[in-house]
């Protein structure tokens, strides 16, 4: 009998619960996976139950679980997600991927470790998705796109073909990105924005069409 892949979700917020939903849906569809619980940095959460699964502790538990489980980071904020993923790696943990059974994609899509694809996502072909990328409810990604490591795409985003999104960029709910656009690293695209031209690193862009309203030079995501 095949032993299901055991998965721990790091985090105990709303998105962590949604990640468990994805794993549960995979199991219900006959895939050999099982979410055995959560880890979380907040000590007051330890020993509690979250969506019928235990919160088993914090970072001190990673090493003990590392030999028998795989991890997913259930945190949407790209900077925090990166720090948590690095912490798991330092403590010997490794990562799996999770794709909801209702996601639609061709076989010409590449995924990095730790990537999470939720319900209703559509990906076409020749798409490269980096490590620890989140594609949330109902997102669409067109042909020949590249989403670098730690990108988070909120629900209902439309990404046209040949778009390149740099590491750690956070794309807000309902945004649209037209074909051929390149977005820099560690930028923020506001909810409902329409990106019609290239955007630089470390900026915040909002509106229709999207315009840069702020740039950062303080290395905030590395602090």
Largest sheet features:
8 strands, mixed
CATH fold-level label of the largest domain: UDP N-Acetylglucosamine Acyltransferase, domain 1
* CATH homologous superfamily annotation of the largest domain: Hexapeptide repeat proteins
Give the fraction of residues assigned to helices. 10-25%
**N- to C-terminal separation?**
46 Å
Q: Helix count, per DSSP?
A: 3
The overall average pLDDT, rounded, is 95
Oligomer: single chain
Number of strands: 24
What structural class do you assign from the helix and strand content? alpha/beta
Question: Would you summarize the structure shown here?
Answer:
This protein is of the alpha/beta class. Helices cover 15% and strands 30% of the residues. The chain folds into 2 domains: 5-96, Rossmann fold; 99-209, 3 Solenoid (UDP N-Acetylglucosamine Acyltransferase, domain 1).
Question: Would you write up a description of this structure?
Answer:
The chain folds into 2 domains: 5-96, Rossmann fold (3-Layer(aba) Sandwich), CATH 3.40.50.20; 99-209, Hexapeptide repeat proteins (UDP N-Acetylglucosamine Acyltransferase, domain 1), CATH 2.160.10.10. The termini are far apart. The protein is α/β, with parallel strands linked by helices and 223 residues long. The chain has 3 helices and 24 strands. Strand 3 (49-50) and strand 4 form a beta hairpin. The chain has helices at 14-28, 62-66, 78-90; strands spanning 5-10, 33-39, 49-50, 53-54, 70-73, 98-99, 104-105, 109-111, 116-117, 122-123, 127-129, 134-135, 140-141, 146-147, 152-153, 158-159, 164-165, 170-171, 176-177, 182-183, 188-189, 194-195, 203-206, 211-215. The strands form 5 sheets. Strands 6-9-12-15-18-21-23-24 form an 8-stranded mixed β-sheet, with helices on one face. Strands 7-10-13-16-19-22 form a 6-stranded parallel β-sheet, with no helix packed on it. 15% of the residues lie in helices and 30% in strands. The model has no long low-confidence stretch (mean pLDDT 95).
């Amino acid at each position: 009998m095949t032993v299901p892949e055991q998965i721990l979700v790091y985090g105990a917020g709303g998105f962590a619960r949604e990640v468990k939903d994805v794993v549960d849906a995979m199991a219900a569809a006959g895939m050999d996976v099982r979410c055995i619980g959560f880890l979380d940095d907040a000590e007051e959460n330890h020993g509690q139950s979250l969506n019928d699964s235990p919160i088993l502790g914090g970072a001190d538990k990673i090493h003990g679980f590392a030999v028998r489980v795989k991890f997913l980071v259930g945190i949407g904020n790209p900077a925090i997600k990166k720090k948590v993923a690095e912490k798991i790696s330092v403590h010997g943990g490794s990562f799996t991927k999770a794709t909801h059974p209702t996601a639609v994609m061709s076989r010409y899509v590449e995924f990095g470790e730790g990537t999470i694809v939720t319900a209703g996502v559509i990906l076409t072909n020749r798409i490269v998705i980096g490590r620890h990328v989140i594609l949330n409810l109902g997102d669409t990604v067109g042909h020949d796109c590249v989403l670098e490591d730690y990108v988070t795409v909120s629900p209902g985003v439309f990404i046209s073909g040949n778009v390149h999104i740099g590491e750690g960029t956070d794309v807000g709910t309902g945004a649209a990105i037209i074909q051929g656009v390149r977005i820099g690293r560690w930028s923020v695209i506001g909810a409902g924005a329409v990106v019609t031209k290239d955007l630089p690193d470390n900026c915040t862009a909002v509106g229709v069409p999207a315009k840069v309203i702020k740039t950062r030079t303080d290395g905030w995501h590395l602090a």
